[in-house]
Amino acid sequence: MKGISGSAPVAVALYASSALAHILPAAFLTPFSKRATSLPEVTVKGNAFFAGSSRFYIRGVDYQPGGSSDAVDPIADTEVCKRDIAEFQKLKINTVRIYTVDNSKSHDECMDMLSQAGIYLALDVNTPKYSIRQDKPAQSYNSAYLQNIFATIDEFVKYSNTLLFFSGNEVINNVKTSVAAPYVKAVTRDMKQYIGNRKYRPVPVGYSAADIDDNRLEAAHYFNCGTDDERSDFFAFNDYSWCDPSTFSTSTWQQKVKDFSDYSIPIFLSEYGCTKTDRKFGEIATLYGTQMSAVYSGGLVYEYSKEGSDIQAKFGLVDVTGSSPQELDDFTTLANAFSKTPNPSGDGGYKMNGQASTCPSQSSTWLVANDGLPAMPPKASNYFKNGAGKGLGLTGPGSQDNGAESTGTASAGSGKATASGTSSSSSGSSGKSSSSSASSALRVPAMEMGPYVCAGVVFVSTLLGAALL
């Protein structure tokens, strides 16, 4: 933990399993076990994730206590972490998705506790004040925005249980907003190149998409076309099309697996769990079965905690408004569904073909005119050389009114994210600081409005020094 001078605990090495995660001594949850636990880093091979040599399937929940009414960072609070990790272990999940974090704070303690429990983090780098606006994408794509998301990368790339970064969430949620796609893809490119230039480990970067019938295929292929530095490392859907009782075919999942049978990067569900009917989580057996494992890598149930609005409250697995979490019916149903469904054996039939998709042509449902991406804002190149500096957290001035800084483009296939073109200034937007993009899912899921724990090695380092002086 930043700023903490260590003590001198005895070095211990433990093999952590889902069973041991329940009985780890309380001493391992102290600040002195700073990053004591190290889960295997997850990498991308072909169209699948791997933890070491083992296929990795995401089994998790979307986690943002407070929702839109109270955008807070749940893993900057040690007590909240302890409270909720105990529930995560009952579900036997291996991943949580968090939509909003405060990059000005340390996350050492909570990330270590998650790691001890065998849990990875899927992280949205955007916040309500720092995100791409779907209505004004050019104006909101600027160096102030990139500085803050790069600072978030700086904070979380050091943890081995940081699974992946989302560059955006549902920025494209209809035909009209597809014009924002080049800006989100440029952010993906910039994040990947920042990670590479800073010589960080290659944490996967990708996009969380709305499951839109009009341009689902176009969006998926667009984020997987072009040069390797431009392409996403994975693609995810917020998919609520399975509403119990349903089946592989009637839910449309069979057709989606067919549509993406040759897709060359991992696909998973970044949100799922329809509430139009009582949730039985019948999709669990199919999602983690051999019918889907060759194409899909699991998913994240929306959502952990019951939130305020009548619609969004339907999604909660627990109610955290009291002194301790109250497990709701969906919690028990989901836990039972997970426990009855092991992952497929072996590699699940994944494909090593890493060939890029063909970029979609402009059409009545896909409004992107060409394959070129916006050039990175000129000032942002300094972050590649010198680092992003301090994150501005959730109370910073925001970046959405700063205006576009470059009218240039990076030519398609150039493989370069360095800025080109003419610098310009903008008078700003109407003054709204809220994002209609999707910095976070602090919102009711669009599809609902409209229509094992991985084993790891626990290593506790002996810190000698100041404590012995």
Q: What is the helix fraction of residues, given as a range?
A: 10-25%
- Main sheet? 8 strands, parallel, barrel
Widest beta sheet: strand line-up: 6-7-8-9-10-11-12-13
Q: Runs with pLDDT <50, length 5+?
A: 1-34, 411-443, 447-469
What structural category arises from helix and sheet content?
Answer: alpha/beta
Number of domains: 1
Question: Which descriptor suits the 3D outline?
Answer: globular
Quickly give the CATH architecture.
Answer: Alpha-Beta Barrel
Question: How far apart are the termini?
Answer: 20 Å
Mean pLDDT: 83
Strand residues, percent:
15-25%
CATH topology: TIM Barrel
Please report the number of helical segments.
11
Please state the CA-atom Rg, rounded to the nearest Å: 21 Å
The H/E string reads: EEEEEEHEHEHHEHEHEHEHEEEHEHEHE
Number of strands: 18
